[in-house]
Design goal:
The chain has a single domain, classed as L,D-transpeptidase catalytic domain-like (Beta Barrel). About 35% of the residues lie in helices and about 15% in strands. The strands form 2 sheets. Strands 3-2-1-9-4-5-6 form a 7-stranded mixed sheet. It has a two-stranded parallel ribbon with strand order 7-8. The protein has 8 helices and 9 strands. It has about 270 residues and is α+β, with helices and mostly antiparallel strands. The two termini are about 35 Å apart.
Length: about 270
């Protein structure tokens, strides 16, 4: 494993530092960095794309996400959205915690991952419930509609915590048009629930279900909520059978956000 990480890191660094000095020619006078990917040459775009893909693979291995059961494809999509959100100023560049829910997995499996991207570390891996009208063991139907009691797909930015009927809870701001923008008015929040447990799974063959909230095990909820509160990104991925097309999954904004966050533009200017 160490050799794999070393080789991947070396390749990434080689890719980053071999970017051409000609980038300075398309730099913005104020930021000394390319203002948009449309100003990049084909070679520049290809090199940043290669650096991004290497970063995806390397950080995936570093965080031990293969053993934790997170699909590389789902992780890549989450990172594209993460960097797109940063690039457009929807989340702070200092918010380096990424939460991923994969509703394509059985509710009997741990399908929530909390990752510290700055440290390349998996912080939490947990069970998480879906809405009662979303499905039984598997999530199959999703909605942004009030009263649907379904889960909603897409990208969220976490908000403030509060004390509710489930104890410490966390507000979610849905930022994916057409998919989850009613999260606040629907009171779709992160909270603990006693039906999210291995005991419930043993008794019923599936996890308990919420009214659309990503509910967590009672014992784990406070620590997870404190980790992800206050402006971090959460991505809820759906099963392959569900059509999901998000503006946040556009690669170009993600490439620019990635290049800026890693200081590539400053190094090559």
């Amino acid at each position: 494993m160490t050799n794999v990480l070393t080789r991947a890191a070396a390749f990434l660094l080689l890719t980053v530092f071999s970017l051409p000095a000609s980038w300075a020619a398309v730099a913005s006078p104020r930021t000394n960095a390319p203002a948009a990917t449309s100003n990049w040459s084909a070679q520049q775009r290809a090199m940043v794309t290669a650096a991004f893909e290497q970063h995806v693979a390397l950080s995936y291995v570093q965080a031990g996400l293969t053993a934790a059961g997170l699909s590389l494809d789902v992780y890549r999509r989450a990172l594209i959205g993460f960097y797109s959100l940063q690039q457009r100023g929807t989340v702070s560049s200092h918010a380096q915690v990424l939460s991923i829910i994969d509703f394509g997995r059985s509710s009997t499996q741990k399908r929530l991952w909390i990752i510290d991207l700055a440290k390349g570390k998996l912080l939490h891996h947990s069970l998480v419930a879906h809405g009662k009208n979303t499905g039984e063991e598997y999530a199959q139907s999703f909605s942004n509609r009030e009263g649907s009691e379904m889960s909603s797909l897409g990208f969220y930015v976490t908000g403030a915590t509060y004390q509710g009927k489930h104890g410490l809870s966390l507000k979610l701001n849905g930022v994916d048009a057409g998919y989850n923008t009613n999260a606040l008015t629907r009171a779709v929040v992160v909270h603990g629930a006693d039906y999210v447990s291995q005991q419930f799974i043993r008794q019923h063959g599936r996890l308990g279900r919420s009214q659309g909230c990503p509910a967590l095990p009672v014992a784990d909820a406070p620590a997870i909520i404190r980790t992800i509160k206050g402006g971090t990104v959460l991505f809820a991925n759906g099963p392959a059978s569900i059509a999901y097309r998000s503006a946040w999954l556009s690669l170009d904004p993600a490439l620019l956000g990635f290049a800026r966050s890693k200081g590539l533009l400053d190094r090559i200017s």
